[in-house]
Amino acid sequence: MELETSANVSTFVAFDGGVQQLNGEDTALILPFVLGAICALGIGGNVLLLAVLTHNVKATGASDTAALLTNLSAADLLLLALCAPARALTYRARAWTLGPVACRMTEWLQHGCLAGKAFTLALLGRARHDLHTRVASDAHLKVKRTALTVCAVWTTALAFPVADIVFSNLHVKGNVSLCVSELAPHSSGFVRAYGKVLPLAAYAAPVLFAAVCHIRNIFKSIPRAREASAARRGEIALSLLSVTAANALALLPEWGAWAWSRHSAREGCGPPAALLVFAQVCMYLSSALTPAILLSTLVPLRESLTRACVRVASRRAAVNNAKMHSEGGTSEVLADSLGRPLPDLEHFWSGRQNPTVPDNTDPFPWERMDQGNTDL
């Protein structure tokens, strides 16, 4: 496909902001619905993850891991709140309807968020790998260092795909507007190199580095599995490895299709539309599944979520009891067999739910001394 420009003939590379001009009424209904459902679930899950992280930080103190998990969730929220709705709207209209500025920015923002996720996963692996070498005073968050790290992550992530702004363009054919990436004749060499460098630097290298760090942490914790702290670090490493692997597998079709389209632009044998749609669904699905994996496998976050749920349930029960007493006028007085009133033990038992009973039969009690600190 060739696109006429003012100076020369440019070669069509790929659609930006979603595959446009798809045939069939079903695709115009099913794809927006699927993306909308993924967005709703993903945004809700990431908001819940941020709330649990905040609760955990208040209970145990801030740490590098908590800060990086917050940054990871923020990247997922940007993808689900800004990028995915634009694709859903494009599939519904079968054309680009958001104007030329959004056309220039859509691929750049999406690849910037994906790069930010990959860099955050790599820093998570490095932070957990170096945790055992730190002294206790360095294990918790240093605000200045963490702020500089997050700023460096996003600056680098948004700088890597800046060429997407240059190659994206809006073409109007009658009443139909198409947002596409186009290849000028003099830029074919750069596009081929760019198609190799960006997936390697923004996807393959950071994800591989993160996976190696987590695997090393797991193997380091095996010889000291009887120690509570080592076992806990191994569990956290396994959870973060699961998140890294899930994102690596889910983002592989997206980066593979993107590199394919850049390397086959001149030959005219780009990836099929079905692969492009499947890749985008997998990409947004990874952002929706990440909070579910973390909240279900990461022990500190799971415990914080459980405590928060118990607290909410207790408050609701207290409110319901108060309403029942107010509607009844006076509370029922319990009496024994001789008619003597029994004391009200409701306030005595409040705050004593799920008490921890010490195990005095453990022959190695010193191994459980640090089990109470389930921080990140």
UniProtKB/TrEMBL annotation:
PANTHER family attached to this UniProt entry: G-PROTEIN COUPLED RECEPTOR 151-RELATED (PTHR45695:SF21), LEUCOKININ RECEPTOR-RELATED (PTHR45695)
Chief location: membrane
Compartment annotation: Membrane
InterPro entries: GPCR_Rhodpsn, GPCR_Rhodpsn_7TM
Gene3D superfamilies to which the protein is assigned, alphabetical: Rhodopsin 7-helix transmembrane proteins
PROSITE patterns membership: G_PROTEIN_RECEP_F1_2
Name of the encoding gene: GPR151
Membrane-crossing residue ranges in chain numbering: 29-53, 146-167, 197-215, 236-253, 273-301
Region (Disordered): 347-376
Annotated G-protein coupled receptors family 1 profile domain residues: 45-294
Keywords: G-protein coupled receptor, Membrane, Receptor, Transducer, Transmembrane, Transmembrane helix
One GO molecular-function entry: G protein-coupled receptor activity
Protein name (record): Putative G-protein coupled receptor 151
Membrane topology term: Multi-pass membrane protein
One cellular component term from this protein's GO annotations in UniProt: plasma membrane
